[in-house]
Design goal:
55% helix; binds calcium ion; Alpha-Beta Plaits; five-stranded mixed β-sheet; eight-stranded mixed barrel; 22 helices; alpha/beta; TIM Barrel; binds ligand C2E
Length: 549
């Protein structure tokens, strides 16, 4: 298209107008100069004096700045102004011989056109050199010069930087020869260019390396899309090819790092890591790598709640005076199809960072209460406790939703217990106090979970409507061997009992500890010594067994 413009008059005209738009000031100067010079020549006595030569400046300027068309046109106008419109001598009014002014007119047009043509050609050649300089000679794919030039126009702040390595390029070259390999690179470039979003810049950084700059930060989406493109079967001149790619990607929040190519060192390293580790791709930023895993997990969480991957297990709590179960704790489990069992300690903190924690707690409450109804129906009258996250207390609708779940399932409130950790209460004390007070007024039992794992002051705890303290399991671990721990547990239990709290010891694993707890007059205990958390059906059987004995 472009070359066609340059071949005919229309092409030169088009070029001239384009240049005029770019440099309008010179154009205005030329427009003013033409009549001004005419007037000067006229006022100084006419064409027979030397002033008419000033006109060359205008014609030359027009040619240089606006090319052949406008150079020639200015020559024509100048030739007419200083031709039939200009007397030889203004005093006598004697006009010029037509041969004289026609000859001058032709000279003017020629000079304007020749200079214009020369400047057009120079511009074209400069452009061609620029294009040559900014693309790879063999493959015609833009190179890093092009990238550098384009980076001047970058406006966004975040970019995804991608390095694509062709690992088996030596084999391909051996097989096809170098020129077909170059064709392959070009084909790949064209394919990526036409399938990637607007604004993506693709450059060839090395014989087997491409760099992509994507003005977006959705790393996962970009990589998925790219991997699909790269994994497409390719062939060159009907020869199907196997191309082994390694892809590295990083996020870039600073355009300066693209301009000085620093960020590409990181994406190159990521690609080499993928190469060495035999991975299809690798995210350079470790943090992002972790986040991707987290993101995937969260993305599948909601679905997992409904498809049975997530379920509850129930662990009994034992009354130490009767050695019979007096309550159950509902604990969540996630059996992920790929990751297998994901411990709650891993996924709950992630879920807590999002609003999904409200869905989780609602779900646990609903499932637990359905289970509780079933147990009551079977004559197994034993309360159930569920764990409430601190984040739940931030949700203004938490209280009303919880109340309505309880009401809908019509489970007597004395069978419901909430467990909250001390840290939960410390973050938002006033609101927590109010909400818990409402629950307590309704008759729901509130327990303080993991006591001793944080820093709670006693006077602080007493401000909340808490009735039971669960002593954290790490105290039980070496209680029988460590005399200090022994004393701590003993005095803690004694203290809370004087304050009229019920005390539960968590994580009880041995008979020794049970004996000690009994000595300390601890009320309840929970732990593997008595029973591990059990699935729904198993806990029913277990309870039937021990309660009906
Ligand atoms: P937690 O509330 O302190 O729950 C008790 C944890 O101790 C459970 O771990 C339980 O399996 C474990 N455990 C019970 N007996 C023993 C024992 O004798 N020895 C030892 N070493 N451990 C014992 P799990 O089920 O892995 O849960 C871990 C934590 O995840 C829970 O600690 C709780 O903070 C949280 N969690 C579990 N389910 C839920 C839930 O439904 N909602 C919320 N918000 N958090 C939950
Ligand atoms: Ca708990
Ligand atoms: Ca606990």
């Amino acid at each position: 298209m472009k070359t066609k413009h340059h071949q005919n008059l229309f092409g030169f005209m088009h070029e001239s107008f384009k240049l005029m738009k770019k440099r309008p000031i010179i154009f205005i100067l030329i427009l003013i100069a033409l009549p001004t010079i005419y007037l000067i020549v006229y006022a100084t006595g006419g064409i027979k004096y030397v002033y008419s030569h000033t006109m060359y400046i205008t014609i030359v300027l027009a040619g240089i700045y606006y090319g052949l068309f406008f150079g020639g046109l200015t020559g024509l106008l100048a030739g007419i102004l200083l031709g039939p419109l200009m007397p030889i001598d203004t005093l006598t009014g004697e006009m010029q011989e037509p041969f004289n002014w026609i000859y001058r007119l032709i000279m003017f047009i020629l000079i304007g056109s020749i200079i214009g043509y020369a400047s057009d050609k120079l511009r074209k050649d400069t452009k061609r050199i620029e294009v040559l300089m900014s693309s790879n000679q063999e493959t015609k794919v833009p190179n890093t010069n092009y990238l550098k030039k384009m980076s001047e126009t970058f406006t966004s702040n975040t970019y995804t930087i991608i390095t694509i390595l062709i690992n088996n390029h030596h084999n391909i070259i051996d097989l096809l020869g170098i020129s077909l390999y170059h064709e392959l690179i070009y084909q790949l470039y064209v394919d990526l260019q036409s399938n990637c979003k607007d604004g993506v810049i693709i450059t060839q950084a090395d014989s087997n390396k491409l760099w992509l700059v994507v003005p977006k930060e959705d790393l996962d989406a970009e990589i998925n899309h790219l991997m699909q493109l790269l994994n497409k079967p390719r062939q060159i001149r009907q020869i199907p090819l196997y191309i082994d790619f390694s892809v590295g990607a990083v996020l870039c929040y600073e355009v300066g790092l693209i301009k000085n190519f620093k960020v590409f060192e990181l994406s190159d390293t990521a690609a080499r890591h993928a190469q060495v580790q035999n991975l299809p791709y690798f995210f350079g930023d470790q943090d992002k790598q972790r986040k991707k895993g987290e993101y995937d997990l969260l993305a599948s969480f909601k679905n997992a709640l409904n498809n049975g991957e997530i379920y509850l297990v129930y662990q009994p709590k034992i009354d130490l005076s009767t050695m019979k179960p007096y309550g159950l704790e509902a604990l969540i489990r996630w059996n992920h199809p790929e990751k297998k069992m994901i411990p709650p300690d891993v996924f709950i903190p992630l879920v807590e960072e999002t609003k999904l924690i409200h869905i989780l707690t609602d779900w646990v409450l609903t499932e637990s209460l359905i289970k509780e109804k079933e147990l009551i129906h079977l004559g197994l009258h034993i309360p159930i406790s569920i764990n409430i996250s601190g984040k739940n207390l931030y949700d203004p609708q938490f209280e009303s939703r919880t109340m309505s779940i309880i009401k809908d399932l019509a489970v007597p409130v004395e069978y419901i217990e909430f467990e909250l950790t001390e840290s939960t209460l410390m973050v938002n004390p006033q609101d927590s106090k109010n909400i818990l007070q409402d629950f307590a007024n309704l008759g729901i039992h509130i327990s303080l979970d993991d006591y001793g794992s944080g820093y709670s002051s006693l006077s602080y705890i007493t401000q909340f409507p808490i009735r039971t303290i669960k002593i954290d399991r790490h105290f039980m671990k070496d209680m029988s061997t460590n005399p200090e721990m022994h004393e701590i547990v003993k005095s803690t239990i004694a203290l809370f009992k004087t304050l009229n709290y019920k005390v539960v010891a968590e994580g009880v694993e041995t008979m020794d500890v049970v004996e000690l707890l009994k000595d300390f007059e601890c009320d309840y205990a929970q732990g593997y010594f008595f029973a591990k958390p059990m699935e729904s059906q198993k806990i029913t059987e277990w309870l039937k067994n021990v309660l009906n004995k």
